[in-house]
Design brief:
The chain has 384 residues and is mostly helical. 81% of the residues lie in helices and 0% in strands. Residues 183-190 and 377-384 have low confidence and may be disordered.
Length: 384
């Protein structure tokens, strides 16, 4: 699923730009995808509790693949916006079910390692998808010009192939067997006393990070294409190498968490990424920008599996699916709002300001998170 999805991550904005759309419309498309994710997150949590995690993973991956394939064959603005929203709904089914599935099928002492391994698998698949997504259009233009008379058509066939690969994720999921939640751990159970505080704190963090991410993350391909004139092949290599480096760094995540505590490790990694984010805003040298792009990704993304494992530990088992749904809902809604704003800013004022705004949001989120959860450090460290 992630290999196919990564093809769309690297190419879809370039496809829209090649089709004549500017940053503002790209921002609206991305915003509707985030809106679909955010609005579907809570219903997806309920559905995950009732149907089971595996069924939601299956429905979400196949649905995402079908929508991604179909939208590759249209440039109608209305259909593109509707397909973006539908893709967000399908993605929410996967995002909401993955963390509870991992938690319910693992023991506490291996959970941080499991989340990191899961994260690395996603990154390795992303390397394959982003590299292929960047190279295939150029190969098609060079070796099959009759099939791909324009770059737009090459993008279209590559995006369709990525969608089909995503649909194929349903095949291995059919053989997955899951451990049912223990009695009393169902998401419909009553909330234990005192659970509202940690859930609210987690939600605030996810909202701030989502707002920051939506300002820049979806636009990295346009950033390299428009500021430096990079081709899809170059951008695919940059994305792929970013994920290779992050996968290697993620191996050290559990070790750092065990040495320094999971909370200090997350906070340190996130704060260390901010100078590189700011550098991307003003940099005019391509090698420096690429280096900053890689460093930011390694530091920020290495903290992601630690954050997910931490979030599953600080809420009661009965509320894991519900907390995941809330966290994803606020993250995606923040992402949706900021992606639309970022497209408007970039179209009028350039690419610098969203990077500075993201750095401020990430910094505030990291510091607040550390201050709010200092008392949970010992518990999380034991889980690491």
């Amino acid at each position: 699923m992630w290999a196919g999805y990564s093809v769309h991550q690297v190419l879809f904005n370039l496809y829209l730009a090649e089709g004549g759309f500017g940053e503002e419309f790209v921002g609206r498309c991305l915003s509707l995808t985030g809106l679909g994710m955010g609005l579907a997150a809570l219903p997806a949590g309920i559905l995950s509790d009732r149907l089971g995690r595996r069924h939601c993973l299956l429905l979400g991956s196949v649905g995402l693949g079908v929508v991604s394939t179909l939208r590759a064959f249209t440039l109608d603005p209305g259909w593109l916006l509707a397909a973006g929203f539908a893709a967000g709904v399908a993605y929410a089914l996967v995002a909401i079910s993955a963390s509870p599935f991992l938690s319910e099928n693992s023991e506490t002492h291996v959970r941080t390692h499991l989340f990191s391994a899961h994260f690395i698998v996603i990154l390795v698949a992303g390397v394959c998808g982003t590299f292929a997504g960047g190279q295939i259009p150029e190969l098609l233009r060079r070796h099959a010009p009759a099939w791909t008379p324009t770059l737009l058509v090459a993008y279209r066939w590559t995006l369709a192939a990525g969608g089909i690969v995503t649909v194929m994720a349903g095949w291995p999921l059919l053989s997955v067997r899951e451990q049912p939640p223990l009695e009393g751990e169902a998401g419909t159970a009553a909330a234990p006393g005192g659970a509202a505080g940690p859930m609210a704190k987690l939600a605030l963090n996810f909202f701030l990070i989502g707002c920051g991410a939506g300002l820049v993350i979806p636009f990295f391909n346009l950033y390299f294409a428009n500021r430096f004139g990079c081709t899809s092949g170059q951008i695919g290599v940059y994305y792929a190498m970013s994920q290779v480096l992050t996968a290697l760094a993620a191996l050290a995540g559990p070790l750092l968490a065990r040495r320094f505590g999971i909370l200090k490790t997350m906070t340190g990694l996130q704060l260390a990424s901010l100078p590189f984010l700011v550098t991307l805003g003003f940099e005019s040298s391509l090698p420096v920008a690429v280096g900053a792009f890689w460093a930011r990704a390694v530091l920020m993304q290495t903290s992601s599996p630690l954050l997910n494992a931490f979030a599953m530990e600080v809420v009661p088992p009965a509320l894991r699916a519900r907390a995941t749904a809330v966290n994803n809902a606020v993250w995606f809604l923040g992402w949706a709002a900021s992606a639309s704003v970022a497209g408007w800013i970039m179209a009028r004022y350039g690419y610098e300001y969203p990077y500075y705004m993201t750095a401020a949001l990430y910094g505030a989120a990291s510091i607040l998170f550390y201050r709010m959860f200092r008392g949970a450090t010992v518990k999380a460290r034991g889980a690491a």
